[in-house]
């Protein structure tokens, strides 16, 4: 069934409407946590603390009792009011890929306009970033980056942001960002991994 057959069309809201309501028919209020697989939990833990400002909350699977129970190493690190869960998958398939150009899955962190600019300036010194971008028909400004393994991350603001400090995503001469441009091997020298 196509979007035309079901009547979907572009929809926009007035600027500033993003936080006017948290109404949900089922009482779902916000994201509590999200989970990402990792092959190197030590690097991921350090990345979340040092790059995202994460605060350790709950770590499990590291002692003999947990190993005997079959619990794999996993961590919960608080980033703002959301828990960032990382679970080690030493064997088996991990769907994260540095060469995947799809926008999803990704995780977005909400900040003020001032903090968007500060984080963009801070992160572009240590890893590749793309943006900031404005999005057509919505009052959101954002930039994108990745973890060393290729998890896609975004920082966005719904506050007014100076147009002269951002690009219109998809505009002529701007285009759509490419995830492959954001590949890095942090904490080593930023740039494409060999």
TrEMBL record:
KW Cell cycle (keyword) present: no
Region span, Disordered: 1-21
InterPro entries recorded: Glyas_Bleomycin-R_OHBP_Dase, VOC_core
Domain VOC: 30-158
Stated name of the protein: Catechol 2,3-dioxygenase-like lactoylglutathione lyase family enzyme
Domain of life: Bacteria
Compositionally biased region (Polar residues): 1-12
Provenance organism: Aminobacter aganoensis
Keywords: Dioxygenase, Lyase, Oxidoreductase
PROSITE patterns listed in its UniProt record: VOC
GO molecular function: dioxygenase activity; lyase activity
């Amino acid at each position: 069934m196509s979007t035309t057959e079901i009547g979907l069309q572009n929809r926009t809201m007035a600027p500033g409407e993003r936080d006017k309501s948290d109404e949900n028919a089922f009482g779902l209020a916000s994201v509590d946590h999200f989970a990402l697989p990792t092959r190197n939990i030590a690097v991921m833990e350090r990345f979340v603390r040092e790059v995202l400002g994460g605060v350790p909350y709950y770590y499990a699977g590291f002692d003999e009792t947990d190993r005997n129970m079959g619990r794999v190493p996993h961590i919960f690190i608080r980033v703002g009011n959301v828990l960032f869960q990382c679970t080690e998958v030493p064997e088996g398939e991990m769907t994260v890929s540095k060469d995947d150009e799809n926008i999803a899955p990704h995780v977005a962190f909400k900040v003020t306009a001032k903090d968007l600019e500060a984080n963009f300036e801070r992160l572009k010194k240590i890893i590749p970033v793309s943006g900031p971008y404005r999005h057509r028909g919505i009052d959101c400004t954002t930039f994108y980056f990745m973890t060393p393994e290729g998890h896609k991350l975004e920082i966005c603001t719904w506050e007014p942001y100076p147009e002269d400090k951002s690009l219109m995503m998809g505009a002529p001469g701007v285009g759509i960002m490419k995830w492959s441009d954001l590949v890095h091997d942090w904490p080593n020298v930023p740039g494409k991994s060999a």
